[in-house]
Design a protein that fits this description.
Shape: globular
Largest sheet: 7 strands, mixed
Structural class: mainly beta
Number of helices: 0
Distance between the termini: 41 Å
Order of helices and strands: EEEEEEEEEEE
Helix content: under 10%
Radius of gyration: 13 Å
Strand content: over 45%
Oligomer: single chain
């Protein structure tokens, strides 16, 4: 069965960095678009960044210039490098694989303290 495992979250101070990873199994990883979403307490889940099977990327405005999404198809893994973190980046971060079907990771908590 398909499984996405999110990791790399943690507690970091304002201005710090974290690198999230999402490793997939049970699917043809290279043919899927991969995205990172986040959900803060009391808010809806929102798209943060995504990367197509061809490597095209998209970022929501609030993270442009600070976050970088990348993928390693040989390792079935998508990454989210997060720099210059702000308190408003605090959320549970989820990866998502999309093609015909959607698959979600279990989420990883990111907390940015001031």
């Amino acid at each position: 069965q398909v499984q996405l495992v999110d990791s790399g979250g943690g507690l970091v101070q304002v201005g710090g960095s974290l690198r999230l990873s999402c490793t997939a199994s049970g699917l043809t990883f290279g043919s899927y678009a991969m995205g990172w979403y986040r959900q803060a307490p009391g808010k809806e889940r929102e798209l943060v960044a995504d990367i197509s099977s061809g490597g095209s990327t998209y970022y929501t405005d609030s993270v442009k210039g600070r976050f970088t999404i990348s993928r390693d198809n040989a390792k079935n893994t998508v990454y989210l490098q997060m720099d210059s973190l702000k308190p408003e980046d605090t959320a549970v971060y989820y990866c998502r694989a999309s093609r015909v079907h959607l698959y979600w990771g279990q989420g990883t908590q990111v907390t940015v303290s001031s």
